[in-house]
Prior knowledge:
Structural class: alpha+beta
Low-confidence stretches: 1-16
Number of domains: 4
Mean pLDDT: 79
Strand content: 15-25%
CATH class of the largest domain: Alpha Beta
CATH topology of the largest domain: Beta-Lactamase
Number of strands: 19
Shape: elongated
Amino acid sequence: MSESPDVPPVRASRWSDRQSRDALQVIAEGVAEVAGFDLVGISAVRDDGYLQTLVIVGPEEARKRLIDSLAPVAPLLEQLEQADDWGALKFVPHDRMILDIDTWGWTSDAPREHLAPGAWHPDDMLVAPLEAADGTLLGILGIELPRDGMVPGPAQRQTLAMYARQACRAVITTLERERLAEQVRLAGAAADIVRHAVGTRSANEVLAECGPAISQGFRAESLWVQRLGADRRCDGPLYVDGAPTVRLPSGLGALVAAQAPRAWERQCVAVIAPERPLPGFLGGDQHAEVISFLAGLDIESLLFIPVGAGHECFGALGLTRAPGGAEWSEEEAAAALAIGRDLGRAVANARVLEREHQLLDELRDIADYKGRLLATVSHELKNPLSAILGYAEILAAEPGLSDAARACAAAIERGGGRLARVVDDLLLLHEPTETRAARARPVDLGQAVAEVVELNGAVAGGRRLTLRADLPGVPVLALAEPRDVDHVVTNLVGNALKYTPEGGTIVVGVERIGEEAVLRCTDDGIGIAEEEQAHLFEEFFRSTDPVAVAQPGTGLGLAIVRRVVERHGGRIEVDSALGRGSTFRVFLPAG
């Protein structure tokens, strides 16, 4: 129960847990009572190689002097090599004491001279090493000031050793429980961080969501986050959780930007504190500059953690603790590095999501621009086309026109009419959804099919095709805009007529299935290759099948059908195979 003259300043550790200290206090009190000693203390070995005194039972002066004091383990182990072996206990008589008692710790002011034979000398030391199953030293149980003033005799030593073994088992259990609790706490902190990071849409949101969980999980005063840009320079201001905004001096900002990637490459964290060894990436002047900067913010220690994913470093975390705060343990350092990896993956995913959303917005802008462009061009073409067709009709009706001129006028009418249909298709394709949906009302699908089939009967007959309607005995109503329904049926029937060879059959039917009205158009035509079906409803798509290419068309018909159907909350399906015909099914909300 001692304190070295060259130890670091007294500081708390993770043993600030009250429940664990209370359990150790009870054990120490039991040992003092049973063993008959007035001073009993329990110390734990820390990760930095020091013993920290956790509990003291004894004089108030000793408690104030020793509680939370630090002593290096190495000199104590060297001293114990010269101790008498009392089984679970080690006794060092004062004449073999190599530690400087006057400066090492508290000693009683009892007489040191003219002692009776066998009397306890104030500089005697009796301890029980606390070891794990693998022999690792976990702590020390120290016993001093026997109430009878005598060094224990052989019989009393056996009793003391028995009680010491029992106490040691209890202390070791408590120490292991505390270490396990530390691991559970850090694992919980990591789980919280991953949970907060999942689903965030931007790197800034990841940091904002995870910052409080990291600070709380590591019992830190504040969390600093410095992001690095693509040029590996500090990107934006320093994010701080739990503290006022901090502006890094340019020199420190450059230091973070330079050293974070190195720390990530080496997969290491560093503790920056006055009494800690210099991290490998800091020179003496740099270390002094950082320490001075931290002191100005009333910060004593900083845990520096690189953040990254794969080979890319995104920045660094800084966890801070104020003077008197806990030492950073090895468990915390390992957990912090793991969190740097988890957070790096979350940031990488967030960056991908950010890019995806950015690309999606860009695609929407492009689609909107294309729609406006096509609508504008179509409107601008409509009036000149109307004039061209009008004058062509007037010209064709001129009685004195030569046969050659009349043929030219007819060609102008055919070409102008075809172009006018393309313009109408483009206008229909890019008309706003709400404009059409607002005019939706119950429409009899069967009646629409019967009218289109009748209108195209002559065309089918001329090509020796069988075109028939397969209609139920009751109306099948769909909630849609009537003109849109006519466009859908006309396009599907027109495609079937175009791509079905002579002698083929086309059947158009309707039915109601649940809450949907279904339009079905089946033919035994040339069919559609499987690899082309995914592009079938794209604008201006034309099949590469030579038979299909030979037929005139713009590639807008099925795109219009899909757009119209989707405007009304419906869907379209196709079932086709090359050389075996096609079936198109349109599903619309039932009216």
